[in-house]
TrEMBL record:
Residue stretches making up the Peptidoglycan binding-like domain: 74-126
Residues spanning the signal sequence: 1-29
Pfam families the record matches: PG_binding_1
SUPFAM superfamilies, sorted: PGBD-like
Entry protein name: Peptidoglycan binding-like domain-containing protein
Keyword check for Zinc: no
Keywords, sorted A to Z: Signal
Amino acid sequence: MPFSATRRYAALLLASAALVGGTATGAVAAGTGADALAAYPCDVTMSSTGRLTAGYYSGNTVVPSSSQVTAAGKEAQCLLQYQGYNPGTVDGIFGSRSQTAAKRFQSTVNDACDTNLRVDGKIGEQSWPYLRRLYC
């Protein structure tokens, strides 16, 4: 499977950081180039209050990165996939396919929930709460 230039670049950066002893902090997952292109499993569960989670990131503020593997990226990709939006491979890198899925999700939420999410393909403070539940 061919990888996009962004993913190849991200894998190269992560591999370089690993070679020089670099570490990642916050929601960024440390890993080698091979880990950066790995497909992660999605085990989405719903709490008794109706909140969805895939177990990678529990917050509602971090915007997934389009250039590096993040826990927020894996979480958003899993939740989009669970709700029927195809983000592509769940690899933690929120690239163009994930952003397209997020735009479709945001547009659907706007129509179904009579809200005004920015349809920008970024999962941030406004979109996370809707992504974490199956209803308005």
